[in-house]
Amino acid sequence: MPLNDGSDGFPSALKLLIAGGFGVGKTTFVGAVSEIEPLHTEELLTTASVGTDRLTGVEGKSTTTVAMDFGRITISKEHVLYLFGTPGQERFWFMWDELSSGAMGAVVLADTRRLEDCFPAVDFFESRGIGFLVAVNEFDTTCRYEPDDVRSALDLKPDTPIVLCDARDQRSSTGVLISLMQHLLAQQACR
Amino acid sequence: MLDTDEHWFDDAAGRLIRPYTVSNGRTEPTTRMELLSMVIATGRRPQGQLGPEHAQALGLCGSFTTVAEVAARLSLPAVVTKILLSDLVDWGVVKTRAPDPMADSTNLTVLETILDALERRI
């Protein structure tokens, strides 16, 4: 497989993940920042078997169809950014390594009414060392929480940013991605 | 009345052809592809007549695009789309490249390029 040395004219596709619980606004967020209407596809992903009812002699792997919504932002002639949200099977998406492999970073969208829904995503990105921030999607009816309350509720590391956003708003959601890039840059500077 | 250009898709019933029918029952692409593998038509003319799905897939590769986008626009699962696209690669009418393993979060230049581009959007 030829590597990208820029000589063959192919742009690089870069991946960001938009994670969070069901109904938190992942697809809305993707739609707000994407230059195209969010697209939908299904991918067959390999899942490590965790059950006890494994058949003797069968490898501990199975495949599952995972539904994804995604959008695109063209950065330059050389780089295209893809944002993947996972509307289906949201409780289990973190089991699929293929989804996160090659991801530059992630946004964990949180709804303060159901903060616990984003625990799996936070755990996953922390354990895989994928840089992420938590974006609190402020619904109209939500009573507002201070970022520090969210931080302690999610037991976030001190350097994990928390930002507020309106996932329906292009400026606000793009601002979240800007904060994520600044965070990833700051992490690199610390290494 | 259904039109082949409409992907044999019915709003109520979903796809009217089983996904693997279009790949002739095959479940593995001949070229390894990922969702974010880039594809583009080579400009070479196919030898012989392409089937409707292959022709549609080729039609979506007029400019750089990804396996994920082609799959979404064909309303086909990614795994089936990879088989169609790998056929087109075998026939020399599409070329592909896997995502760049170096273009990750450790590449400062890439991060700065993205940051600049995002800031210009607001």
Descriptive key words:
heterodimer, A: 191 residues, alpha/beta, Rossmann fold, seven-stranded mixed sheet, globular, B: 122 residues, alpha+beta, three-stranded antiparallel sheet, 4 helices
Plain-language structure description:
- The complex is a heterodimer of chains A (191) and B (122).
- Chain A contains five helices and seven strands; from the N terminus they run βαβββαβαβαβα.
- Chain A has 191 residues and is an alpha/beta fold.
- In chain A, strand 5, helix 3 and strand 6 form a beta-alpha-beta unit.
- Chain B is of the alpha+beta class.
- Chain B has one domain.
- A three-stranded antiparallel beta sheet of chain B has the order 4-3-5. A two-stranded antiparallel ribbon of chain B has the order 1-2.
- In chain B, strand 1 and strand 2 (14-15) form a beta hairpin.
- The chains are: A alpha/beta (191), B alpha+beta (122).
Please describe the topology of this protein:
The complex is a heterodimer of chains A (191) and B (122).
Chain A (H helix, E strand, L loop, with lengths): L11 E9 L5 H8 L5 E10 L12 E14 L4 E7 L11 H4 L2 E8 L8 H10 L3 E6 L9 H8 L7 E4 L4 H20 L2
Parallel strand pairs in A: 1-4, 1-5, 5-6, 6-7
Antiparallel strand pairs in A: 2-3, 3-4
Helix pairs in contact in A: 1-5
Chain B lengths: L8 E2 L3 E2 L22 E4 L10 H8 L5 E2 H8 L3 H13 L3 E4 L10 H13 L2
Antiparallel strand pairs in B: 1-2, 3-4, 3-5
Helix pairs in contact in B: 1-3, 2-3
